[in-house]
Amino acid sequence: MECSVWNWENNATTPVFPYWPAIIGFLGYNPLPKPQTPAEQLVQTRKIRGLSQKEMAKRLGVDPSTLARRERGERKPAGMFLSRVQRFLVDEEEAGRSDSRRAG
């Protein structure tokens, strides 16, 4: 683990999705840059929750390839997918607030 942290701190590698919740919890804040696009917001939400594309796609009720295209910015969220994403983001924000209240 020590080697991994050194690599992260020196920008040799970046943490993979399962580590992000623990990193954010340890730091007490989200060190990732603010997302500028819907695609970046999807990726960041997935990372900070420690979800793989497959896991997040399942929670959204979509095929993983659909989520992957959205995360690459090839298609913007619209229609049913957009409403599922918005609902997921709200649910995740509420879950985060509940977690911080319990910890505080």
Beta-strand portion reads under 5%
What average pLDDT do the residues reach? 80
Discrete helix count: 6
CATH superfamily: lambda repressor-like DNA-binding domains
- Succession of helices and strands: HHHHHH
Radius of gyration, in Å, reads 15 Å
The biggest beta sheet is recorded as:
none
- Whole-number count of domains: 1
The class by helix and strand makeup works out as mainly alpha
- From the spread of the alpha carbons, the general shape counts as globular
Fold and architecture overview:
By secondary structure, this protein is mainly α. It has one domain: 434 Repressor (Amino-terminal Domain). About 65% of the residues lie in helices and about 0% in strands. The protein contains 6 helices and no strands. Helix 4 crosses helix 5. The protein is globular and about 45 Å long. The model has no long low-confidence stretch (mean pLDDT about 80).
Task: Provide key terms for this protein.
434 Repressor (Amino-terminal Domain), 104 residues, 6 helices
Can you give me a brief rundown of this structure?
With 104 residues, this protein is an all-alpha fold. The protein contains six helices and no strands. The protein has a single domain, classed as Orthogonal Bundle (434 Repressor (Amino-terminal Domain)).
